[in-house]
Amino acid sequence: MFSHIKDLQFEAKPDGPDAAFARRLQEVLGGKWGEMTVATQYLFQGWSCRLPGKYKDLLLDVGTEEVGHVEMICTMIARLLDSAPLSVQEAAAEDNPMLAAIYAGSNPAHFIHAGSGPLPADSNGVPWNGAFITASGNLLADFHLNVTAEAQGRLQVARLFNMTDDPGVKKMLRFLLARDTMHQNMWLAAIEQLKEDGLEEMPVPEAFPDAEQENAFAYQYIDFSEGQEAAEGRWASGPSPDGKGEFSYQAQPTAHAGEPVLPAGDPRLYGTPPPAGSSGAGKKKK
């Protein structure tokens, strides 16, 4: 059960209109790494969590907070569009080239589709997509992805911070940066907690029964580049992070199978058949 509190978690009020920045701010609302993505991702991860208690609460708590961030950014975008010029003539009415340039960088859909409001889309106007979210049912795998989501989101907010001089906008962005910092550290701590609780060790089924032949490749770094600089990396020698193997280094890739030759396809699919008499030619169905 959800309820809505009318107060915002933090103030979202610019010092003045800026339609061009409203367009840019759309990225951290409806972009791949935006607040709509993380809010929905954490909620779906929580709803599908089979462990009642702290992990489920963690996911639903943070997902709910992110919904509040969606509202904050939507409010900021609406206020950035308030009193913004609707035409080139209006933008240049006071012979202000800067204002005209700002108008030129705006998104017409803000006014045409949303009536001077936010859109569920990124900074290019591409609609938000549910395919952006992942809720696999494996908490360790999902928590690793959540670290990435917070890192990418924080990076984009930091870049946007340097694209505006509006003190009110910067104030809100500082708050979002602080919360993203917390969430990054929180997911890293949650990963450690899963390991301490003995629930997961690797973000894949930890006890997957690898065949003996595959174990030879499980900790081998293969160098596909010129030179051998990669051999100096932590990933090329020494114990592996999972504590179950030793990294090894192979200077050049080795083929472990011959060239694949496929038989002729089903003639009903109208593919191009191999030449008659070739090893890939098969009998055609009548």
TrEMBL record:
Binds 1 Ca(2+) ion per subunit. Residues 230-286 are annotated as: Disordered. The keyword Calcium applies. One of its GO terms (molecular function) is metal ion binding. Keywords: Calcium, Manganese, Metal-binding. The keyword ATP-binding does not apply. Mn(2+) 1 binds at E35, H69, E150, H183. Pfam families: Mn_catalase. Mn(2+) 2 binds at E66. InterPro entries: Ferritin-like (IPR012347), Ferritin-like_SF (IPR009078), Mn_catalase (IPR007760), Mn_catalase_dom (IPR039377). Belongs to the manganese catalase family. This is Mn-containing catalase. It comes from Micromonospora polyrhachis.
